[in-house]
C-alpha cells in the first residue's frame, strides 16, 4: 500500500543481488514515522504535569526513535544507490518531492529529544554532541529543501490548478522545527555574540517558515472549498496544517525562555510578551483546524478509508500542539492550557500506537514495500 503515487521505472542497472527490490518503493515519507516517534518522547517530557513513570517511558521511546532513524537512513541510502531512477522520479513527482522535508525534521526531532530525555541515558555531553550533529545537518537540509522543492514545483513539476495539498507544507515547515529546537543549544554557547546570533537565527527561520506557510494555507483551503474533500488516502494529511501552527507556538515560547541569557533586557521582555500574544490566537486557530480535520477524517473512515503511511500525519503535528500548549501553560500559568496539553498528548500517543502497529503489520506482510497498485505518471517541464 503506497502513501503517494509513484512512477514505474525500469530497474536500476545493478546486478539482481544488489538491487534490493524491497527498497525500490521506499520513499522519503518513511521519515515521518521517525518524526512521529521522537515527538512522543519530547512532548511527554514537556508536559506541565508530573506523571509517575512517564519520563522513563519517554526515554524508551527516544531510544526507539534513534534506532528507527538509523534504519531509515540506511534504507534510504540503499534506495538511492540501487534505485537511482526511482529516486529521481520521486524528485520529479509533485506528490512525493515535498516529503524530502521529512528528512530534515526527522534529524531535528531525534536530536532535540536527545537533549530532552536522551541525556538521562547517554549523559549530557553525548546528548549535546549528538544534537549538534543532527541539528546542524537537519537545519542545513531543511533550509535547502525549503528552497529546492518550491523551485522544482515552479520549473519542473506540472501542478494543475486546484490540486494544492497540505503535503506542500512539509518543506517549508522544516525551518520552523529548527527554530523550535534551537533554544536547546543557546545556553550551551558562549555568552554574548554567539548566543544572540543563535537566538536571532532561530527567529529568522521562524519568520521564513511562517510567511511561507501563510502563502500556502489559502491555496490549501481554497482547494478544499472548490474541489471538495481530499481523496481518502490523503485525508490524514489535513493534520499537517497543525505542524506550523503548533511548532511556531512552541518556537516562540522556547525562544522566550532562553532570551534573557542571550539578548538585552528590553528585547527579552518583549519576546516573552510576544510568546503569549502570538501563541494564544494561533493555538486557537490550531484547535479550530483540528476539529475540521477530525470531522473530515471521520467522514473518510465512514467512506472506507484504510491504513496507509499518511496515518503518520496524525502524530508529529499533534505533538507540536502538545509542546505549544505546554509552553503557553508555562508562560500564562493557566490550568486550561495544562489540561489541553494533556488531552492532546493522549491523542498523540493513541495515534502513534495505531500508526505504529499498522506499520509493523504492513512491513511484516510486505504490503507497505510493494509496488503501488495504481501508479500515476510523473509530468515535468523540460525547462
How are the SSEs placed, and which strands pair?
Blueprint (H helix, E strand, L loop, with lengths): L15 H4 L11 H16 L7 H29 L1 H9 L8 H22 L1 H32 L13 H13 L11 H35 L14 H17 L6 H38 L13 H17 L2 H31 L18
Written overview of the protein:
Residues 1-18 and 375-383 have low confidence and may be disordered. The chain is built from 12 helices and no strands. The longest helix is centred in the C-terminal third of the chain and has 38 residues, at 265-302. It is mainly α and 383 residues long. The protein is globular.
Distance between the termini: 33 Å
Order of helices and strands: HHHHHHHHHHHH
Strand coverage percent: under 5%
Poorly predicted tracts of residues:
1-18, 375-383
What is the quaternary state of this protein?
single chain
Instruction: Classify the secondary structure makeup into a structural class.
Output: mainly alpha
Mean pLDDT, all residues: 91
Overall morphology: globular
The largest sheet, given as strand count, sense and whether it forms a barrel, is:
none
**Number of DSSP helices?**
12
Number of strands: 0
- What is Rg? 20 Å
State the helical fraction: 55-70%
Short characterization:
The protein is an all-alpha fold and 383 residues long.
Task: Please name the defining characteristics of this protein.
383 residues; mainly alpha; 12 helices; disordered N terminus; disordered C terminus
